[in-house]
Amino acid sequence: MQELLETMENSSLIQLEGIPLFPDLDDNVEVLKNLFSDCSDFVIREFRLKHSARAIAVFVDGLIDTAQVNEALKSLMIMEGGDDNIGVIEEALLPVSQIDRVDDYKKLLQAVLSGDTGILVDGNKEALTLGIRGAEIRSVNEPEGEAVVRGAREGFIENIRTNTSMLRRKMRTPRLKMRSLVVGRETNTNVVVAYLQGISDAQVVEEVSSRISKIEIDAVLESGYIEELIQDNIYSPFPQIMYTERPDTVAASLLGGRVAIFIDGTPMVLIAPATFWMMMQASEDYFERFQMTTLLRWLRFLFLIIALLTPALYVAITTYHQQMLPTTLLLSVAAARESIPFPAIVEALIMEVAFEALREAGIRLPKTVGQAVSILGALVVGQAAVQAGIVSAPMVIVVSLTGIASFTIPHFNAAISIRMLRFPLMIAASILGIYGILVGVLLILGHMANLRSFGVPYLSPVAPMSAGDLKDVLVRVPWAFMVKRPRLLAIPNAHRMDPAYAKQVQQRGGQAGTTSRGNSDEEGNA
Amino acid sequence: MKRLTPIVVLLLSMLLVTGCWDRREVNDMAIVIAMALDKEPGGLYRLSVQVPLVSSLGSTSGGGGGTSGDKAYYVDSAVGKTIREANDIIQSRMSRELYYSHHRVIVLGEQLAREGMSDALDIIARFPENRLTVYLVMTRGKGIELLNVQPQFERFSGEAMRELLKMEALPVSLKDVAQMLTTPGVDAFLPVIAPVPSHPKGQSREVQIMGLALFHDDKLIHVAQSDSIKGVRWFQRYFTPFSAVLSLGGDNRMTVEFLRGKADITPVLKDGRVHFDIKVYASGIVMENMTGINLEHVNNIKKIEEMLKKEVKTSVEKTLQIMQKYRTDTIGLGIVLARYFPREWRETYRERWYEELPKITYTIRSKVVIEEIGQTTRNITKVDSENE
């Protein structure tokens, strides 16, 4: 016993695995007190059952719903029945819906530290955990990172149970599986791998689960930890796993055969495998009319190119390819650059770095101060620098255009990779002109074509081409034509809908108008 | 490391395959807007360049740039044994690199045109910065004169000439000249532009299109006035509109603008003589009517169309007469002949086309349609004298 206490002194939860609970309550109390010495929030409440068997309730203050736990303890202490067998207590005495029986310290403490209340009764080798949690959680809000005009206004929060319940509310089907894992020696973070049985590729599900379960790390504080640890290529500037804080996006991804990874403590849910094209799509694409969506997608691709290339093109054209500009434009550029003391590349780097700094400052600062930053940025860096002749006006236009363009990319992590990549392109442009830009773009494209996310090529379905999936890349066809799921994975259940239905509506409804010919009254009763 | 080496090698080799490294900042360039080539006594060439003074174009401090009276450009010129030498002389007193990619027109001086322009034009095609789409014009006297003109509407006379050529004249690019010079059976022509004082005198000098310079091979042989050479327009690939004034006796005049026109040439070989059958189709609109003729009547329209036919015919005749007189095939009758009778052309006419040209005969037929008579049928300010 003493030996055990000494070894347990510094052990984490994993090391407690297999250490059984003692039948003698005093031993258990000693172990717990020893483990949780100096833990002011850890409570061991000793009490007696109705007919004087000794018991303790252990819980973490603040994680439980005190009133409800009081109710539960009341039924043990006051109500009749009176049995010290843990099985009887579970089955007959405790009016608690979420109750579990555990037999070792790891399971017990994992539950208690997650907010359960542990009940240990003298003379029993097992303990009960009551799932009466009541920790303070943020209420469900509109997701700020992915706001929409049309669509659900709920976003995930930090609590994983709330998050999985939001997904379950979208998909009321037994096919929605949620595999539970625990990652992190000290954080013991709950991770849930969600997928649709029979629609997701089983291999991918296995791969995701096994990669996550192999993680040996002390803490997982955000989804980024998991993302970086399970992605295929560590050094790539491109995100190979998407994240979202919208339940409807998660649901749509699952229906497309992907796997979602919920992580406790963050509102971000990871989605794998991801392709580059997913990063260019917003959830609203599927809610608004398809024409507008298609046009918006083209706009995003145009601005993706602008965000990546404008500063590089400006540098290349003004220093190498002046003949490409119309004469009058060249004269305007020349007049604007006349008094600028720096070469174009230095000017471009100054402005782009300044812009990145402004943006970074704007994100970190409280909203009230943030306005001051934007004023400073616009006035000081923009106007004053131009008037002082330190940067030229066209450069300011280029930088602002680049900035606006990078904001049109719907997913932040894709936008930052584009932001990063324009710097090497600018330098390539300053050395080799448009030839340099071409080399740079080809290197980037080559890298993207090489990239895989859980076995799925990053540029699919464009490269490698799978013609059937192109209906949801550069265009978004009407839902009536999206009969099949994307074929990126070996999806067993490929059909989304009955293709005949849309045709029926077109023929019977609309102009023919036969559907409205029924003699229903205003309430719709026949 | 092993993976990195090939990448580094690849990147380094990219530096080698690029050709010339020509990084140059915009503020180190002197952008040549127009250049003029002249021949000086002693077989020397004079090169003149028109360069905008970018700092006086104004933009950086907004509004401030270019005080009135200050020229926004600068013309420099030098004489050399070759044009490149002249260029080097100019360069040696210019702190910015002369940059030729953006010149809009090349002005050829009369003397150079008379002595042959081919040699002078070589550098323009050979030097990669130059463009074959640049417009060539000729001027009476020195080409540099045109560069020194400050037109009111544009900042540079080079720009003004280009716009003027595109709108009003038959623009001829270097590419066209090269084609005309190398094709047997057609001779080159260039628009002629001259500096003229505006009216009232002294306010400014503008550039004006004066006519067409006709070449025999690459040598100038005649400068035709705009009026006498209008007939050329019927034979161009793209018709440039022009107007004709009809005189109906006394002060009764009418202006008709030809908007579309096209000519068909059919050569006929008869007893070793070359005869051309020229058909001109034209359509125009009435722009001005000072005659009081009621254009509502079909008969009147018919009458005017008849007169226009004659007008068209004269314009072609005048042109052909000039061509025959100076033995230059501006409209390319030779090419037409070559296309219809390739064997005869090759065997007989190609070598002695210039001797043959004055001997050819032609018939001209024309068809003119008046498509529109304008918004009014009769002069609205005149009392209606007809009995109605």
Cα distance spanning the termini of chain B: 102 Å
> For the report, how would you describe the main beta sheet of chain B?
5 strands, mixed
Q: Considering DSSP H and I runs of 4 or more, what fraction of the residues of chain B is helical?
A: 25-40%
Average pLDDT figure of chain B: 86
Description:
Chain B: It holds the Pfam family Spore_GerAC. Chain B: Residues 22-194 form the Spore germination protein N-terminal domain. Chain B: Residues 210-374 form the Spore germination GerAC-like C-terminal domain. Chain B: Keywords: Germination, Lipoprotein, Membrane, Palmitate, Signal. Chain B: Belongs to the GerABKC lipoprotein family. The complex is a heterodimer of chains A (526) and B (388). With 526 residues, chain A is an alpha+beta fold. Chain A has 17 helices and twelve strands. In chain A, the strands form three sheets. A five-stranded antiparallel β-sheet of chain A has the order 1-2-4-5-3, sandwiched between helices. Chain A has a five-stranded antiparallel β-sheet with strand order 6-7-9-10-8, with helices on both faces. In chain A, strands 11-12 form a two-stranded antiparallel ribbon. In chain A, α11 (290-319) crosses α13 and α13 crosses α15. The mean pLDDT of chain A is 87. Chain B is of the alpha/beta class. Chain B folds into two domains: 27-58 and 69-225, no CATH class; 227-378, 2-Layer Sandwich (GMP Synthetase, Chain A, domain 3), CATH 3.30.300.210. Chain B has helices at residues 4-16, 83-91, 110-115, 118-126, 143-147, 157-168, 174-182, 298-326, 333-340, 342-349, 353-356; strands at 29-31, 34-40, 44-52, 73-80, 97-99, 105-108, 135-138, 189-197, 205-216, 219-225, 242-247, 253-270, 273-289, 361-372. In chain B, β9 and β10 form a beta hairpin. The A-B interface holds A 318-320, 322-323, 327, 330-340, 343-344, 386-387, 389, 392-393, 430, 432-433, 435, 439 and B 14-15, 18, 22-27, 29, 31, 33, 52, 54-55, 57-61, 65, 99, 101-102, 104, 129, 131, 159.
